[in-house]
Please model this.
Amino acid sequence: MDELTPRQQAILSLVIREYIATAHPVGSRTVVERYGLGISPATVRNEMAVLEELGYLTHPHTSAGRVPTERGYRYFVERLMEQAELPAAECRMIRHQFHQARPDLEQWLRLAASVLARTVRSAALVSIPRMKQCRFKHLELIATHGPMVLLVLVLEGGLIKQQMLTLDAPISQEALTRAANRLNEALEGKVADQVDEQTPRLPPFEAEIAELVRDIMRRVDAHSGGPLYRDGLIDVLSQPEFRHLETLQRLLILWEQQSFLEQVLSEFLALAEGGVQVIIGGEQRWEELSPFSMVLARYGVSGQATGVLGVLGPTRMAYGRAISAVRYVSNLMSELLRELYG
Model:
């Protein structure tokens, strides 16, 4: 990036802040009158022209005011934006919402997407935590009707799988509970191959259940990405950018391309070293993201299960609030997962 003078940095920062707040091109007189820089509009105009030549600002054909470019937003995020935290009252409210929810991974994933969407007024994305290999936590066997039994398998990290079984003959709930307790003791903390090794040592009925558990765990390992939890489409559509039909269509197409969004989050998870990352306009890598920005962060327990969460919106995004919200929710989700893993 170019080395800007302090005055150029101040003007670029003010133009971007004003544009984020109003969604209108920013003129030199607005900057002088609203922010009291103590210099003339002509001087500001000259500096804005230099910033435009350097690629940080541009201007619509019908306006003398300037708007930021992707390059301008990047400079702002990396060099000019002040680090901020969410207000304490909002943090308390978000934390309370999570602790009011059931201690269930799916509930937390849905809530994380909802909280981010409402807090940032953007679309939100949350991937399920990926495990190197899923591990058995516990199971329940529940008698339902006649020979029908519901198997509820809970894996470390909170992932829950359910399956209906049809037995050769009905078994009492007491007998099912005893079998489940013995399996829980024998299989606790084991991966699928270890469950397989344990199976020959079990009584016939419990061995049959263990084989089913092993098969479920192997399917989970083979498709560890899981669903992508999304929320906030209505919130982001309230932004003025989407009054333009072309931009609206691009967002709706992108939103429907779940496999592409999963790919972006998967690549981020594989490459990002940590902390909150900002993707502006696709970074010349993802053409589908060119009118948009994403603010993403890892969450989870390193070495056991990690996922990605974040927000998607127009490049005219309130980056400071988005970054602080994503950071707070990712830290909170990591705390909750550490509790699940004990």
